[in-house]
């Protein structure tokens, strides 16, 4: 199905406003992605180009950049989230349970939600067996954590026209791949409904730092500009602000201070709380 077959067009103007429980105006949704990059393949993204510009395999420089994220920066960000009082939704490649088990265990020990992010960091379009990969992803994470993930992010936020049907069949209840609305919206599939939670491509460290090449302080500047608009609108209707972080970008020494300042400044406002994806989903279904 085309996305427009799954979701009827509905302007937000004139739509009945959703409301959070008393005292809450805006929910911050921190999304923290943990990935496994296969050294035998081109890296998911790069920070340094190779000499003479031709990609080389194995790409050890860029692989080691990501590896720093798991060995060092993850732990720095874990302390940061504890300091600001936010529990993120952790989108993990299921293979991370096998290659970085202490990292996943630390997430569980912190009480963070595990969200499925496919098995490896490969676009959905390039999988030989998309349905099989989705089911494998869910089973590996469930086996490690004792709980089946309720949410899903595609690698690079990718989907084919069939992905949502496979996800619903595998028991996924919400996705974060769409940035088409400020409200959660309900999507039709061949196996029931899936909710798309409001996500962001803009308050996103990959976009800001790895693609647009902004100074580190732009994380705080853009997050606060984004927040001020949503917070003003939240006087009339519930608003959700997703913030996306990756350890090899947000957890490096020259950037983490700006990331922490953004979360601290936002959460200091009256009526602002941090929720996980499953908390937002449960609220939306009741609302």
Which series of helices and strands comes N to C?
Answer: HEHEHHEHEHEEEHHEHHEH
Count of domains:
1
Write down the overall mean pLDDT. Answer: 97
CATH topology: TIM Barrel
Q: Which class of secondary structure composition applies to the elements?
A: alpha/beta
Helix content: 25-40%
Q: What do we call the CATH homologous superfamily?
A: Glycoside hydrolase/deacetylase
The helix tally amounts to 11
CATH class assignment: Alpha Beta
Kindly estimate the percentage of residues that lie in beta strands according to DSSP.
Answer: 5-15%
Q: In the CATH hierarchy, what is the architecture at level 2?
A: Alpha-Beta Barrel
Q: Any low-confidence stretches, pLDDT <50, length ≥5?
A: none
* Main sheet record: 5 strands, parallel
Radius of gyration: 19 Å
Number of strands: 9
Task: State the end-to-end CA separation.
Answer: 27 Å
Overall geometric form: globular
Structure report:
It is built from eleven helices and nine strands. By secondary structure, it is of the alpha/beta class. The protein has a single domain (21-41, 58-286), classed as TIM Barrel (Alpha-Beta Barrel), CATH 3.20.20. The strands form two sheets. Strands 1, 2, 3, 8 and 9 form a five-stranded parallel sheet that branches. A four-stranded mixed sheet has the order 4-5-7-6. α2 (60-84) links the parallel β1 and β2 (89-92). It starts with a helix and ends with a helix.
